[in-house]
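Hi team,

As requested, here is the filled-out complex form for the heme C run. I kept the field names the same as last time so the parser does not choke. Let me know if anything looks off before we queue the next batch.

— J.
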Amino acid sequence: MYKYGKKILWGLLGVLVIIQFIHPERNESGSAPGDITGKYTVPGEVMAVLKPACYDCHSNLTRYPWYANIQPVAWWLAAHVNDGKRHLNFHEFTTRRVAVQNHKLEEIIEMVKEEEMPLGSYTWTHADARLSDAQRELIVNWAKSAMDSLKAQYPADSLVLRRK
Ligand code: HEC
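And here is what came back:
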């Protein structure tokens, strides 16, 4: 086994060098075909929490840290961004059915209340995403008022999410 130790080490090093040339696509288009602010009132103080705490994974514009240039870190980040965006995208929010929008708002309340979002691995590296109790409350109350505005505009039945 020891005989091969050095070869394996060089092999791994080679792989590490080679993968530096393979970059995942960056999430920097910034396109916003269904921006949440187009339909919902998002007060400045709410956006001032959402932007630094959520937008890196839930919008079409990620601010990348320097280490996002290093593989396999970049792949790991890209996986989070793609997964996060598939679940919730503030830049494409209003392109979804109103029942879905209503459901996403409800999930925002849940995730923020239970401190499941932002992701732990993210707040560890992003101090501005560590939310205080007051900031959590701000987001929860905002999402509740957004749900109320839907309730006022649409028949109750249309806000119930059914699988299509
Ligand atoms: C580092 C990336 C990252 C950040 C930052 C982040 N999220 Fe997420 N979020 C994800 C990922 C990945 C998922 C999907 C997997 C999961 O549920 O854990 C997700 C799922 C969600 C869901 C569930 C949606 C569904 O359909 O189940 C909600 C709601 C949510 N996030 C809200 C937020 C809010 C609000 C913030 C900011 C306070 C935030 N997230 C910050 C990555 C992130």
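Two things worth flagging: The pocket of heme C is lined by residues 53-54, 56-58, 80, 83-84, 87-88, 107-108, 111-112, 117-119, 122, 129 (CB under 6 Å). The two ends are 56 Å apart (CA to CA).

Thanks,
J.
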